[in-house]
Amino acid sequence: MPLRLRGKKKAKPKETAGLVEGKPTGAGGGSLSASQAPPRRLVFHAQLAHGSATGRVEGFSSIQELYAQIAGAFEISPSEILYCTLNTPRIDMERLLGGQLGLEDFIFAHVKGIKKEVNVYKSEDSLGVTITDNGVGYAFIKRIKDGGVIDSIKTICVGDHIESINGENIVGWRHYDVAKKLKELKKEEVFTMKLIEPKKAFEIEPRSKAGKSSGEKIGCGRATLRLRSKGPATVEEMPSETKAKAIEKIDDVLELYMGIRDIDLATTMFEAGKDKVNPDEFAVALDGTLGDFAFPDEFVFDVWGVIGDAKRRGL
């Protein structure tokens, strides 16, 4: 039965990131005061993924502040950082830095490398690509499906930052906005993407082994630093197995209804619904967070069912 309670969808402005524009604002639009800093003095170690000395970063509460710390440690612009991986310098999408950081994780920052422009013929409705973003304005390719449209173009690689589509600059867009843009492109037409691949080392194997050695110490504890767009970072336990399975199920529902798999989008939906008491509240929360998708009521109800099951099992 349709919910019919979300009313008129409010326009959601595109998110822009001060990092990309070079403005030292907080991820939520304002700076974080010193009194909001994490109560514990946490120090992390970082390297540039293509090769560098080891730097120290501390005193950050958001991804944007972390990038600024890394940039300061290596004397580069924060806008040069595409994304970070944990405990490996490789472009490993399973080890992307997201909203949580293990207290002993070693951070590798991937910076801008070669620019490229690619023409793509959209022969199928689905391009066979999963998009994610770094949380501060850069969307990039997380997965490429074997045999898909994008898979046939070998110059497009996992980890490439998408700078523009058909001449439209998409810096500052969230990953779901970029996925929606690609999905809406007409079938059997050619479109153009400008991409930036991360800078790579000529010989990365020796440092890869060193990164693995550091990682053996890390991941043994379950405490993590939770980075937030507003407010201070907090030390928390790792997400429960129940939550992880619920997010995977939401990803399955996304594929069923929308034809996409996007674990980051599924996580965003789970977070939007975990503290809601009924599907109507959840629907309103989705419209406020992901309104551009205009999810059908049946989809919302199915996702709410997954979240409800997880809540009954205990998160």
From TrEMBL:
Residues 1-12 have a biased composition (Basic residues). This is GIPC PDZ domain containing family member 2. Belongs to the GIPC family. InterPro entries: GH2_GIPC (IPR055349), GIPC1-3_GH1 (IPR056814), GIPC1/2/3 (IPR017379), PDZ (IPR001478), PDZ_sf (IPR036034). The gene is GIPC2. SUPFAM superfamilies: PDZ domain-like (SSF50156). Residues 1-36 are annotated as: Disordered. It comes from the Eukaryota. The lineage of its organism: Eukaryota, Metazoa, Chordata, Craniata, Vertebrata. Pfam families: GIPC1_GH1, GIPC1_GH2, PDZ. Residues 117-184 form the PDZ domain.
